Amino acid sequence: GMRYVAGGMGSYSEGQSNTVSSPLTYNAIDNYTTTALVGLMSSHRLAERTSLLISAGVEKDTNANIGNLITTGNGEFNVAMNNNYRSVRPTASLGAFHDLSAHERIGLSAIYRQEAYQALTSTTVMATYTVGL
Fold first, then answer.
1. How confident is the model at residue 99 (pLDDT cuts 50, 70, 90)?
2. How many CA atoms lie within 13 A of 116 on its CB side?
3. Is a pLDDT exceeding 90 seen at residue 62?
4. Pairwise CA distance, residues 22 & 13, whole Å
5. Where do the domains of the chain lie?
6. Which end of the chain is more exposed for a tag (fewer CB within 10 A), N or C?
7. Helices (H), 2-110
8. Considering the chain, what percentage of its residues have pLDDT values greater than 90?
């Protein structure tokens, strides 16, 4: 599949006060990426109303436009956000789901991703309750 993401971070500014001697300011940055996704997914029914789902894949940015962070305050510096940028990243997920009825489901899912910046990975665990018609 393909995914387009437009994101960013707003600017920030501190004022000088009794507790802030060197106020920090940084600019807003914008990020725009187009990403191709490929992977495998498998599910297994453990019981009549309980199932497991597992997936693994790779994300590859086909186009990325990433802003730089420019700060002032305790010395001015420019942080190139794309210096450690990783355009190919692994992702994986695991979930267990139980159907309470024909219209209700509870689940527990875990998602692992390597973020675009090399030093960052994220693991998310979430419990869900789904109601449908």
1. very high
2. 19
3. yes
4. 11
5. 2-131
6. C
7. none
8. 53
